[in-house]
Amino acid sequence: MTQIPFVESPERQSLRQEVRKLASSYGREYFVRQARNGEKTTELWQDIAKHGYLGVSIPEEYGGGGGGIGDLAAVLEELAAAGSPLLMMVVSPAICGTVITRFGTDEQKRRWLPGIADGSFTMAFAITEPDAGSNSHRITTTARRDADGWVLKGRKIYISGVDEAQAVLVVARTEDAKTGSLKPCLFVVPTDAAGFEYQPIEMEILSPEKQFSVFIDDVHLPADALVGDEDAGLLQLFAGLNPERIMASAFATGMARLALEQAVEYAKTRQVFKTPIGAHQAIAHPLAESHVEVELARLMTQKAAALYDAGEDMAAGEAANMAKFASADAVCKAADRAVQTLGGNGLTVEYGVASLLTASRLSRIAPVSREMILNFVSSFSLGLPKSY
Amino acid sequence: MNIVVCVKYVPDATGDRKFESDNTVDREGVDGLLSELDEYAVEQSLQLKEKLGSDGGDSEVTVLTIGPAGAVDAIRKALQMGADKGVHVQDDAIAGSDAFATSLVLAEAVKKLPHDLVVCGMASTDGGMGVVPAMLSERLGLPGATLGSSIELDGQTLKIRRDGDTATVTVEATLPAVLSVTDQSGEARYPSFKGIMAAKKKPVETWSLADLGVDAGQVGLEASYTAVEETQARPPRTAGEIVKDEDGSGAKALVDFLVSKKFV
Ligand SMILES: Cc1cc2nc3c(=O)[nH]c(=O)nc-3n(C[C@H](O)[C@H](O)[C@H](O)COP(=O)(O)OP(=O)(O)OC[C@H]3O[C@@H](n4cnc5c(N)ncnc54)[C@H](O)[C@@H]3O)c2cc1C
Fold first, then answer.
1. Do residues A103 and A174 share a domain?
2. Quick check: A52 and B192 CB within 8 A?
3. Is residue A1 part of a domain?
4. Ligand 1 atom 37: the closest Cα is on which residue?
5. Domain boundary among A81, A96, A122
6. Nearby residues of B222 by Cβ (< 8 Å), 6 or more positions away
7. Same domain for A373 and A290
8. Is residue A4 part of a domain?
9. Max Cα distance, chain A (Å)
10. Residue A295 domain-assigned?
11. From the CB of A361, is ligand 1 less than 6 Å away?
12. Model confidence, pTM
């Protein structure tokens, strides 16, 4: 197995610094303003893309940086830490970019990757269904062959950013899969295809990116809308889901850093008795504990990314799940503690910490819930019997 | 065309600034980085190189810095932005040098490099006097076009615009020349991801005073003409005063404040 160092390379650290600096020039205010006004953070998306930070993990021959998921995760974490995360990075370059890079034909790569890398083409990702939820073995979106390609039918829910995407990578199953076991196939569906419709779901999350219910009603697709092998879909799906988990972890640890930074800043200056409140251990220790939790989660995220980039898919999968679990818990606690540290100000719009409470909860639910990760660790890592 | 850009590694201005017992800046305990004002010099050097393209032979941008071991980070950043190679003059004897001594070392290093144009920032962001570019041109015996806020190169003629408080002057110099640029010359670029990765493989040489033929007695704190007598910590940040405008008296309160502080 590849030797993986415990600390990131100087180049990775430089990348973090530059992204942090660029994102800070936009700042949390920009993100909040755009989200509250129902606007997107397109300028930041394009700016990040312009410097090659969005396409870091796409191969150089298709316009990317030729780096790995570790680089992409570093970019997202720094954006989140600066208060302006870009949720669509989790799906467009990380899931879709990876799946197409690994399993697409040359023609498919040429068609989609350059746009994903330079930010001009955004691809959403749709696996979740109303009746399947965490149980992706139950998805019913179906692909049927017709004379010149495929006909797709089904429903998806909570799909992020469909309104800003030119296409969606849809997880469906082929119609002849009678066994009931998951035989997923991945299709690229243009968002303007006839029969493809979507409606926003009102969410209590302060975010420029929205979630949608998607209705796929006999959408006709050309034969080459299928990415990868019809019979090896599960493997290909996981190739995309591990980067997704790593990115979700980076999103969470970045947001946790933001919450902690705000809390620490406040605790240093706010004084109601003899000393700043940060001198009271009741305030200091929970923040210190959060710092430890965040650093541990970051380390696991980096390990998962390093394993993934080294081609160790199995080991990466286990690490990515654990990283996602640790990061989600870390950010939820950090947000909770930040609010408590700020007292009444913790719930004001002005300080903006309260909005992290709902936003951080997302990390425990998506892309895979805390419970499903514990199920995985119980059976896969510990060998315990399954309940389902 | 060969461009040498002189850059300085300075303590991060966002961190706490500390001084040693001899009143030199404490560079050990703080994170350092490429001086922000020198980023403009790197940017202009790269733009000149890009404008020249490949006609007139390939241009090369060499980053030159004097500083402790960590100063290689400043070179690295310039290489990430797009410079071609680096020279790091590192020698314990240089520590504490003033502008006079610094310009001597820089001049000797520049002499060892092919140079049509030497580019500097307008001043450093730590102990800044802003005189090194002028001293450097004097020591090299080259024309000095300093404080340029817009830079043009026409063949062998360098043309800059220097913005003063009351007038704007255009300065021309024939190459080889020394140029310094201001923070108005154009935003410095962020290194691209490819730039960051490529910098890893770019050559950086380390030179000592002996390599330059400079006698250690001519530089360092002892040999410096200027001496820092005293330093004072930045005053702590005070809470400030928030002017609330509930009954229309806000504007007056604001003006009174500005007048009391002699801002207007
Ligand atoms: C903001 C947001 C953005 C999203 N973006 C996307 C997207 O872009 N694309 C996409 O495809 N999906 C997206 N999702 C969907 C997300 O991946 C799902 O919400 C998630 O997988 C959970 O599924 P569910 O909501 O149906 O919950 P359910 O599966 O109904 O689960 C409900 C609860 O039951 C628990 N539970 C279920 N089964 C078990 C079990 N066997 N053992 C123990 N506990 C169990 C779960 O852990 C959870 O706590 C998004 C969701 C959100 C909130």
1. no
2. yes
3. no
4. A134
5. A122
6. B96
7. yes
8. no
9. 80
10. yes
11. no
12. 0.91
Contact flag A52-B194 (C-beta cutoff 8 Å)? yes
Distance from the first to the final alpha carbon of chain B: 49
Query: A305 to each of A17, A87, A125, A204, how far by Cα in Å?
Result: 19, 18, 20, 31
Domain boundaries, chain B: 2-223
| pLDDT of B228 | 83
The answer as to CATH 3.40.50.620 being correct for domain B2-223 is yes
Which residues of chain B approach chain A closer than 8 Å at the C-beta?
A: 76-77, 80, 190-194, 196-197, 199-200
Average pLDDT for chain A:
95
User: What pLDDT, in 10s, does the model give residues A274-321?
Assistant: 999 999 999 999 999 999 999 999 999 999 999 999 999 999 999 999
Considering the domain architecture, whether residues A192 and A266 belong to the same structural domain is answered as: no
- Does residue A388 form part of some domain? no
pLDDT digits (tens, 9 = 90+) for B175-223: 999 999 999 999 999 999 999 999 999 999 999 999 999 999 999 988 8
Are B73 and B9 within 8 A, CB to CB? yes
| Nearest alpha carbon, ligand 1 atom 25 | A133
3-state secondary structure of B154: strand
| DSSP character at residue B25 | B
ipTM score of complex: 0.89
Residue B186, sorted as left (phi over 0), alpha (psi -120 to 50) or beta, turns out to be left
Domain containing A192 equals 124-227
Within 8 A by CB and 6+ apart from A382, the residues are none
What is the SS3 assignment for A2? coil
Task: Say if residues B122 and B147 touch (Cβ distance below 8 Å).
Answer: yes
